[in-house]
Amino acid sequence: MSTEAPATLAAWLRTRSDEQLRALLAARPDVARPAPSDVVALASRLAVPVSVDRALDELDAATLQVLDAVLLAPTDGMPPDALVAALPEVPDEVVEAAVEALTTQALLWGDDVLHAPDPVRRAVRHPAGLGRRAVDLRLQLPADLPAAVAELDPEERAVLERLAGDRPVGHLPEAPNGGATPARRLLQRGLLARIDALNVELPRELGLLLRGDRPYGPPRRRPEPAPVTRDPQAVDRQSAGAALEQVGRVGELLALLEEEAAGLLRSGGVGVRDQKRLAKTLKVAEPDAAWLLELAHAAGLLDVGGPHRDEWLPTRAYDVWREQDLADRWAVLAAGWLGAVRLPSLVGVRDVAGKAANPLSPDLVRHTAPAIRRSALAVLAELPPGSGLPPDELVALLRWRTPRRADRLAPVPDMLAEAARLGVLVGGVPSTGGRGLLATGEDGAADGVRGLLPEPVDHVLAQPDLSLIAPGPLVADLADTLSVVADVESSGGATVFRVSEPSVRRALDAGWSAPDLHDFFAKASRTPVPQALDYLVDDVARQHGRLRVGSIESYVRSDDHGLLSQVLGDRRTAAAELRRLAPGVLVSGLGADEVLTVLREAGYAPAGEHPGGAVLTRPPARPRAAGRRGAEPPSAPRPLSGADLDTTVREIRAGDAALAARRGEAVRQVPGVTTASTLELLSRAVREGVPVWLGYVDAQGSGSQRVVQPVSLAGGFLQGYDERRGESRTFAVHRITSVALVEDDAS
What we know:
Blueprint: H1 9-15, H2 18-27, H3 39-46, H4 49-57, H5 61-71, H6 80-86, H7 92-104, H8 118-123, H9 145-150, H10 154-163, E1 169-171, H11 182-189, E2 193-194, E3 199-201, H12 204-211, E4 228-229, H13 232-259, E5 262-263, H14 272-282, H15 286-298, E6 302-305, E7 311-314, H16 316-323, H17 326-338, H18 369-381, E8 387-388, H19 391-401, H20 412-422, E9 425-426, E10 429-430, H21 432-440, H22 442-449, E11 461-462, E12 467-470, H23 476-485, E13 487-490, E14 495-498, H24 501-509, H25 514-524, H26 531-543, E15 554-557, H27 561-569, E16 578-582, E17 585-588, H28 592-601, H29 642-663, E18 667-668, H30 676-688, E19 692-697, E20 703-714, E21 717-722, E22 727-732, E23 736-741
Antiparallel strand pairs: 1-3, 2-3, 4-8, 5-7, 6-7, 9-10, 11-12, 12-14, 13-14, 15-17, 16-17, 18-23, 19-20, 19-23, 20-21, 21-22
Helix pairs in contact: 1-3, 2-29, 5-7, 13-15, 13-17, 14-15, 17-22, 18-19, 21-22, 24-26
């Protein structure tokens, strides 16, 4: 084996152990699917700009500072010892950990000398916050640069020192009254380079001069914020209260939209009028109504539907959600919020044209939102239970952990407020449900609050003032019935319903009778039904129905009146709900198809009739939106399992062995014609246990190359273990197009 230092990234990767390759693929899973054919293909994928940017975005500020030192080295490459000496204020263990992280992800490569791949150099436009070299900016600096800087006035030097900070590009201001600004004077002196009509850049040499003995800037130490602490049990109790409120509010909102859908604006979202209506009915502020709309939509319980898909309606998932227990219902809401690509906090914010964003508007979509939420909660989840961080200190820590994404962290305080409203956080401290949500999703979230939320109750307490008090969340059936016969007066831990003349009339309109209502109140209430409630029901019922308006769904007509009388008196046709409207005509409230079915099962032979020839159907059920067909696309590649990593590394090694075999002399043959040389080489491989590289054509005529560990050769078939596929295979010898031995020292 050669002891020379690898000359390329691919050559260096070939020297890495299987464990190191597994660590690389685990840290950068986007390069592992599909499995690279060999090390050269792996190196090519590692150089893809999108993959490089994604890996750099995950590095903390200290690791990026170490990378900057290598990128700013005067020569291509930097020994590890020189790297430690270049950063004297950074602890050695921090430098070593950074080098380990960078080499693990192949953002640096080499052992005795660390090299940065060209794609990494291109991705880091301003290493250590320094500009490009003067030669790259096509700028001729003064021969005596320190003397030129010493001659500057304080205003000009202040401009240079500001650009020498962490951003070497600045805006070139307009000169007031035709005078020259400090920046323009520096431009004339040749100390700044113009990069376009409005911006200038400070050359690297000048930035290094101004920084003095800190060429890479001050050490980027990890912030150590002081955590806030709370009693974990108190946190969980408050979290359960918030969870109960949000589940109840979302349920009320969707019940309202079930009765009267909200219109879809042409630009998307919910209009101001519907938002005001919902807020008024729910007795909440308009921003709170917008939040509930966004939360229901994020959980997949609200979407666009209706006959023309122009209304916001509950989805089919809402019917399932209503039947779940409270813990599972909250988990659905929390998981939907965590993975949502929308920012509810932007509702009401005006754009450059002065237009305010509506709830559920496309203007609220931010595809980076799920990653930001998860990263913020992950920092808090690393703290011990009962500990948290204030929002400003959490943002500062996030800026250190992912400085390349610092410009995306503006929504974090609003996200934390939303998490607190949901019960995921309490005073900046993650609840048990919040920790479970981050760890295992809906199941963990539900387990975290289960036992803290009250069980649904199946009764109310009737009061003399015609109110009904629900001492907890209600079971779905009772809640549905109460929504018809009473109105919500106040909600919370105990919901107060009010029975009134309009609510009783609404129940009678829905098909209830006075005895039905008396029976319902008697069964649903754990307290005696007050006499005033019975009187109210009877008084409204006496006035109800004196004037009637009805409709029919179908009719049965015949010129044989005796036959109609027979049908009407037949007990087998009772299910058709027929009644006589006039001689020769029976009517039913059921659809024509159902009446036809009942009559045919009773032995009659009716025929359907309609002027258009179509069969009428029953009125449709309550409208539902179809909802989302699938989950939101993941914002990051799915991590690979241990088995996936082992398989991928094995395939890369096998491909590398095949690549090495191709460099040697291979025995080639025409498919269908087996040569003596082929048989001799295969026999030798079986005898000596040496793997072979095969060119093979399958029954469909598709060619492939693979490394095979031969086991036996008999009857025109080669038995062996296919390294790339990780399985034993049988190969027909007459389909082999080429064969070569893979020697141990091929690499």
